Write the structure tokens for this entry.
Amino acid sequence: MKIWVDIKNSHEPLFFRSLAAGLSGHEFLFTARDYIEVTKLLDRYGYHYTTVGRHHGRKLIMKLYGLIHRELGLFFRTGKFDVSLSHGSVHAVHVAAAKRKKSIQIYDNDLPTLNNRLALPFLDYLIIPESIDRQKFQRFSKRLKIFTFDGFKEDIYVADHRPDPAFMDGLPFTDFVAVRPEALNAEYVPADVRSIVPQLLRELDRAGIGILYLPRYPQDREWGKEARNIFIPPEPLNGLDVCHYARAVLTGSGTFAREAAAMGTPAVSFYPGEELLSVDREMIRRGWMIHSREPSEIVDFVRSARRKPLDRERTRGNETQDKRPQEPKKEEEEPKAERSEAERSEAERHKGEKAEGEGKKADEIRQERIEKERTKEQRTGKERTEEEKAKVESTEEKRAQEEKTRDERMSRERARSAQRAVIGIIDDILSTIKTPSRSS
């Protein structure tokens, strides 16, 4: 069966790469909208595709013009296909309906957007996370067949991610947060919203936190010019690699935050809409991410989420040798001799003075010995404390690494389960569609 896939946003190249790999035995036709990083990412991942149309900004009249213009282009340039598959592409749904072909969407935006109002009445099959109330979509079309799966759409491609070991070589720091601005040109964002990114970048910079800044639109670059500890990559990056290596991911739209959250990375959404998506609320309920539009609160969250390697360097004192003073040699006793009373008295006096001097000297020697013993014990105790501290930190670091590995494994297993479920649903849908016809 020939499946037409229309790609319009920057997360979709990875999304559909995983789906196409799982839907074996089918032929795929790819089209793409020229929008932000989409075509560059498609080139990076080796897609063969046709570019049709572009984004026309947030003004309604221009959106409608762009809608009609792109759908006409798709109608004539897609040729023959049997079913369309997309993630929220109203263009794909309309063109498939015009060509009397079935359309399938995997989608998670359950808000009453213009896109949903235009697409859902013409859509045949919809696949959504089970955390979404299906009635939010069903109200737009009673004939729409809705399927649910346990998980999130991000799981579908997180399941196949393997971190690029050379990713960090292209960054000027080893510890960073990723920042992605709001999609202010999207129709679901209120027109009077002001971005919090300029203030957020300033506060992160003041806190000495490395910033991997990922501008969405060309004008977004201006906000990063004043920051010192900031890096804007010259080419689009693999978003999942960013999520894997970042201390935290801070984004003005939901998908990037959900990608990070699905991978176990601390995530903040500062989405500016009046209402959050059901999938975002579910992740917040689970404690996988937070939502905030207060820059200071976000920076505090980042500080607490810091993943700093333990410092293994230790300063150790040199071992102190035990240089105990030798016992003073006893004076040889004088041979007994007959002495006069005066001599005996003088001798007794000298003997008393000598004994007193030797006693003082012995006390000094004893005190010196005690001080040296105390110093030795203090040094030994300090060394022992540092050794114990090093062992504790090494154990904690090992435990943290084991927990991270375990969490990543569990996240991947959960994601694979969701991926298998979605691919199974699509396979079942395709099996109900008639054998490919020769009509266009």
Remarks:
- Residues 307-339 have pLDDT under 50 and may be disordered.
- The chain has 13 helices and 13 strands.
